[in-house]
Amino acid sequence: MRTIRRTTEVDCPFTAVMELTQRCAERLVARRLAAKALRDRSDRARRNTALSVEFLPHSRLPCAPFLVLITARPWHRGCRLQLEASYAPPLGFAGPLYDLVIGRRLAHSAIDGLLRELHAAVEECWRNERAAWTPPLSSPERDGQLTPA
């Protein structure tokens, strides 16, 4: 098994990021994906949710399916998404040679593309949710005393 690790910072609060990530991932790549939430065991201090994704990239060349684990950590004003993708090179006994020549580049490119799509979709979902938010009738925001952040 080969492993690829990538991170990106998203402008979305930690409390909402995994729900939005799951929703966006399912919408973005539904035909290439099966996602399920599970407990994140990589952080012993917090009880977080992780997202397990089975991802098969579109490619004309042989490409192995990935098992991607997505976790999130608070980071400055937003949070950091971490992707850890594992795959076994395709083509059986010729797989290691194929992976050395071209497969590894295909795998890195596919995971980088998934991360870019996910990053943009999560931030767009968060902007849309913030724009659609209206304060309760009796709140200080509605009375003009405070403005939402």
Provide a short characterization of the protein structure.
The chain has 149 residues and is of the alpha+beta class. It is built from two helices and five strands; from the N terminus they run βαββββα.
Structural classification: alpha+beta
Total individual domains: 1
Q: Mean of the pLDDT scores?
A: 83
Could you tell me the number of beta strands?
5
Helix content: 25-40%
Model regions low in confidence, pLDDT < 50 over at least 5 residues: none
Descriptive key words:
149 residues, alpha+beta, elongated
Report on the structure:
The protein contains two helices and five strands. It has helices spanning 14-28, 95-132; strands at 2-10, 33-40, 48-55, 66-75, 78-87. The chain has one domain. The model has no long low-confidence stretch (mean pLDDT 83). It has a five-stranded antiparallel beta sheet with strand order 1-5-4-3-2, with helices on one face. The protein starts with a strand and ends in a 17-residue tail after the last helix. It is 36% helix and 30% strand. The longest helix has 38 residues, at 95-132. The radius of gyration is 19 Å and the shape is elongated. By secondary structure, it is of the alpha+beta class.
